[in-house]
Specification:
- The structure holds two protein chains of two kinds.
- Chain A is an all-alpha fold.
- Chain A has helices at residues 2-14, 19-41, 44-47, 73-92, 96-113, 120-134, 143-150, 163-185, 194-197, 206-214, 220-232, 234-239, 241-261, 266-280, 283-294; strands spanning 16-18, 159-161.
- In chain A, 69% of the residues lie in helices and 2% in strands.
- In chain A, helix 2 (19-41) packs antiparallel against helix 4 and helix 6 packs antiparallel against helix 8.
- Chain B is of the alpha+beta class.
- Chain B is built from six helices and four strands.
- Chain B has helices at 3-35, 40-44, 47-50, 100-107, 112-127, 184-191, and strands at 65-75, 80-84, 141-152, 176-181.
- The chains are: A mainly alpha, B alpha+beta.
- The interface between A and B is large, with 67 and 62 residues.
Chain lengths: 296, 202
């Protein structure tokens, strides 16, 4: 029984996937990450360097996963420059796999270096970029693909085994399901206005203020229920072929609303949308998009 | 390439593939377990690895109010506490709760080591007179107070104004909680002997 499960799992991982899925993640995810980082990048000296506040060495305190002392300010600027260049190169497909690896390393460094400015995007982006680096990034579109064609070589195949995309296709439902279960273990099952309660602090945007003051308060509870139903049951929504597109569209819609209603969370929303689209866009749509982009 | 070498490289590739898949499965298990409240990953893994798995438990609890951390400085010349705007010294995301000063006090709300480090940092930055922080640049400060402000959420349906940062003096006393105050002796040391010093109640 067990070996058969493993064999089927391995066969699922190795089943060919359109390479364009990885390309969509490669193009758009780094842009969302750089957008998130942009407010930090312009203050490299305060963020990573010696010009800003640093939490002292807390000696193994779990709130400080690794103590990294402030680096000299010129070094801080070098790190953020490397990050930006690597991120843009990844998105454009210039030495894409190497760029994605460098991007991932710089993201991991800044995430550990300053816990105070690290959020979910900071922690998942190195993993996503490593997945991109380990796959055939820029084999279909982007600068590397264009260079190959110019050299007279054929572009990468339309479909091939893509462990990276399989990883991200599992990552999303695992992430959402875990998030949904955390909410169920918190207040979401017992307090009907959890969602409503988060609309009143410094994340508030004009849109969330408008909705908080104009929408009937009871309407937030069904929204809260649908978010919970989507997240906790996401392995079903995104795993079952018949509900997958609906699940993807709900996920995109949910993140659009999150981006509009919780100011700084917009970059997280865009990152998740890029993953949802790259991983779960229906095959027919991917084929048409691939044909249009590659002229095939 | 000889067939022996090809076999070896194919073997290595297979080992690498299995290793990568194992790491991926462990990562996903760790991420899921951490969010559902299982402490196994944090017990087994180094902090720096576990940290990258602490990502999915997003907004699990109801917000009891809008939390804002603020600071006051003890103005030596005036012998009084005055609000100190920390944003010039913590310029990342200055107006949201993602600001590093907000995060420092949120993570280390009861940690004197971090409070003292913040104290030293803010006093040094103000006294260096490099930015406008609400206290005149030519008036050194001898210490700081950190205050946690909890702005209650208006009852549903009640008239509401958009979230805005108001002056600390305008915040009702009941919504403020003192987290830290520079020790007396340190204020005296910084302001110099003879300078007026805060009483225990200030």
């Amino acid at each position: 029984m067990t070996p058969r499960v493993f064999t089927r799992f391995a066969a699922w991982i190795d089943a060919p996937q359109p390479a364009l899925r990885l390309e969509l993640v490669r193009v758009f995810a780094p842009l969302a990450v750089l957008g998130f980082m942009s407010g930090r990048l312009v203050h490299a000296g305060e963020w990573l360097g010696q010009a800003g506040f640093r939490v002292p060495d807390m000696g193994g305190d779990p709130r400080q996963p690794l103590f990294i002392p402030a680096i000299p300010t010129p070094a801080a600027w070098a790190v953020v420059t490397l990050m930006v260049v690597a991120g843009i190169c990844t998105s454009m497909g210039v030495r894409a796999r190497f760029s994605a690896f460098v991007f991932a390393m710089t993201l991991a460094f800044v995430s550990l270096s300053d816990r105070l400015a690290a959020f979910t995007v900071s922690k998942i982006s190195p993993v996503i970029m490593l997945a991109v680096a380990l796959g055939p990034a820029a084999s279909r579109i982007g600068f590397d693909a264009w260079l190959r064609v110019r050299r007279g070589e054929p572009p990468g195949p339309y479909a091939r085994p893509l462990g990276s995309i399989r990883f991200l296709q599992v990552f999303l439902p695992v992430f959402y399901c875990a998030s949904g279960l955390a909410k169920m273990g918190g207040d979401w099952m017992v307090v009907p206005r959890v969602l409503y309660s988060h609309l009143h602090d410094s994340y508030q945007t004009p849109i969330s203020f408008f909705l908080a003051t104009h929408m009937p308060v009871w309407a937030w509870t069904p929204m809260q229920v649908t978010v919970l139903a989507f997240e906790a049951l996401s392995p079903l929504w995104l795993g079952w072929r018949r509900t997958r597109t609906l699940g993807m569209l709900y996920g995109v819609g949910m993140h659009v609303m999150i981006g509009l209603m919780f100011g700084p969370v917009i970059w997280f929303a865009l990152l998740m949308i890029s993953l949802l689209v790259g991983c779960y866009l229906p095959d027919g749509w991917v084929a048409r998009l691939d044909a249009r982009l590659t002229g095939g | 390439m000889s067939s022996g070498r090809m076999v070896t490289s194919e073997k290595m590739r297979r080992i690498a593939r299995v290793a990568l898949r194992t790491v991926a499965v462990l990562y996903l298990c760790g991420l899921w377990l951490d969010a559902v409240g299982c402490s196994a990953p944090s017990r087994v893994l180094p902090n720096a690895v576990d940290y990258f798995m602490q990502v999915a438990a997003l907004f699990p609890e109801v917000a009891g109010g809008a939390i804002d951390y603020r600071a006051e400085g003890w103005v030596c010349a005036d012998a009084r506490w005055q609000e100190l705007d920390t944003r010039p010294y913590f310029p990342l995301d200055p107006d949201s709760k993602e600001n590093r000063f907000q995060r420092a006090l949120n993570f280390y709300r009861e940690d004197t080591v971090v409070h003292r480090a913040l104290d030293d940092y803010l006093v040094a930055r103000h006294d260096a007179a490099v930015a406008d922080d609400g206290i005149p640049r030519d008036k050194p400060i001898g210490g700081v107070r950190f205050i946690r402000v909890r702005i209650p959420i208006p009852p549903p349906g009640a008239p509401e104004k958009p979230f805005a940062r108001s002056a600390l003096d305008a915040v009702p006393r009941a919504d403020k909680e003192l987290l830290y105050r520079t020790p007396h002796a340190r204020i005296v040391e910084r302001c110099g002997a003879g300078a007026a010093e805060p009483t225990e109640h200030e």
